[in-house]
Design the sequence.
């Protein structure tokens, strides 16, 4: 379930169970629900799809410290090789190779197909004639929501700015 802050900013994805607990404790309100219902011994409630926290939660803006994962890099780069545009056989590539002083940071790692990664090898982008189509950058928070839930339900789309 998509969790929105009190300001309608998407902050997290949680389980149905966690969403229902937040709703029952009146810490959240339901904005969108599915067609199915959840049943307990004494009540029936619609299955939440999007909830909004009642009070504002401060979210640290340290996405630059978030762990770099292959899935997050692929999601940030729209599951596309940044050199040729291919969408298959993806790996990650250090734009400036580690052997040449490049680090494992958000602004030095891009999605690359295996053939492009092999062709670039241990070369700098200008030496290989292979410059990424978009400049690598720290991803926004929506990328991590995509990673947590690769298929975005229709009910979430109006709350996410892709």
Sequence:
């Amino acid at each position: 379930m998509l969790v929105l802050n009190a300001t309608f900013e998407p902050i997290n994805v949680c389980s149905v169970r966690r969403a229902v607990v937040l709703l029952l404790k009146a810490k959240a309100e339901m904005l969108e629900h599915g067609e199915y219902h959840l049943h307990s011994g004494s009540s029936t409630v619609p299955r939440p799809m999007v909830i909004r926290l009642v009070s504002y939660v401060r979210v640290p803006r340290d996405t630059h410290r978030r762990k770099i994962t292959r899935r997050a890099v692929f999601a940030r780069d729209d599951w596309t090789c940044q050199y040729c545009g291919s969408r298959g056989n993806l790996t990650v590539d250090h734009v400036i190779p580690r052997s040449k002083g490049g680090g494992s940071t958000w602004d030095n790692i891009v999605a690359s197909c295996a053939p492009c990664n092999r062709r670039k090898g241990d070369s700098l982008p200008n030496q290989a004639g292979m410059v990424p189509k978009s400049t690598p950058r720290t991803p926004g928070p929506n990328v991590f929501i995509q990673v947590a839930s690769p298929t975005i339900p229709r009910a979430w789309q109006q709350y996410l700015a892709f």
User: Anything to note?
Assistant: Residues 72 and 116 are 20 Å apart (CA to CA). The chain is about 20% helix and 25% strand.
